[in-house]
Amino acid sequence: xxxxxxxxxxxxxxxxxxxxxxxxxxxxxxxxxxxxxxxxxxxxxxxxxxxxxxxxxxxxxxxxxxxxxxxxxxxxxxxxxxxxxxxxxxxxxxxxxxxxxxxxxxxxxxxxxxxxxxxxxxxxxxxxxxxxxxxxxxxxxxxxxxxxxxxxxxxxxxxxxxxxxxxxxxxxxxxxxxxxxxxxxxxxxxxxxxxxxxxxxxxxxxxxxxxxxxxxxxxxxxxxxxxxxxxxxxxxxxxxxxxxxxxxxxxxxxxxxxxxxxxxxxxxxxxxxxxxxxxxx
Length: 281
Description:
This protein has helices at 4-18, 35-47, 60-69, 79-87, 111-121, 198-204, 243-251, and strands spanning 25-28, 51-54, 74-77, 101-104, 125-130, 137-140, 156-157, 162-166, 181-186, 205-206, 209-218, 224-229, 234-236, 239-241, 256-266, 270-279. By secondary structure, it is of the alpha/beta class.
């Protein structure tokens, strides 16, 4: 259950974080039935009276054309969208100099995709993090300053948002910088609970803290790094193996275009990692 206060709080956080005026143009591609699309493509720009260019469905050619035509400044998407734009045959036809803020969420952003996009569009894609239970945004890398951006990091907490890493087993011990554990967050954007599901609500909300179910770590400077979903953790001979770490190693090979690692049941090791790979043509 998200209240009006939850949504308005997160809307104000977004606007303060981006720091732009009402004459900005937003490109809105993500569906509004998804909390990420609703917040970044509708609520945040409308709050300041900005221009919103809506697309009922994603068409790479029309999006590339719109960036030049509508002088798009803010573009929020997912890695798949950015990848398809780079692969489109019309890529070199338009001027993208208006783009200032490009934000990626929902899925991990590979270093290759980030570098290619920056080379072509002249704008850095920054990663953020959120979940529907938090309206949805809780973290983001700083915008507009490449020196403050940390690759592989989901950034630092939004204004008025507290975050920490706790142990996976009990969720009661706060861990030190560099240690892996579950990410928990607290702030005015955190939901009131799940509708008519008190048991599920009790399991994720404790003393105002939202237990995200995501395995993360925090560095000495307060930047957070998403490792994996708690339920995706692979237990190999008693060791914790995180699929995303293996995927990042696989992406270092030039022949790998896409990959995904899962845990496969094994009678001896409990689980063994199994990778699915799409090769570059």
